Amino acid sequence: MIRALRRWFARTDVRLEPRTISGREVSFTDGYSLLELERAGISEAQAAATGLRIDRERTSALGSNVMELEILRCARGFQAR
Questions:
Q1: Strand boundaries in 1-73, DSSP class E
Q2: Which of 7, 34, 55, 74 would suit a FRET pair with 65, their CA atoms being 20 to 30 Å apart?
């Protein structure tokens, strides 16, 4: 029974990673886009110091990614650019 419960709760784990939308599917991506960092008020240097992955090829911005970055910026005490 314990094994079944662990499998069940493993499905509900929350992963705080950058996502992208292609069509109707949401999938995880390699890193945050520069546009998402800009909208959240985080510079590239701050992102690199925090250990965030940056995907320079991706040009789209997903609102949930920007919200995660804003929460991270406030938690780390970064000043908005």
A1: 19-22, 25-28
A2: 7
Residue 2 maps to a domain: no
**Host domain of residue 71:** 34-81
In a domain, 11, yes or no: no
Counting the structural domains of the chain, the total is: 1
Q: For 36-59, write each residue's pLDDT tens digit.
A: 999 999 999 999 988 999 999 998
To the nearest 10°, the Cα dihedral for 40, 44, 75, 70?
10
* Residue 77 pLDDT grade (very low, low, confident, very high; cuts 50, 70, 90): confident
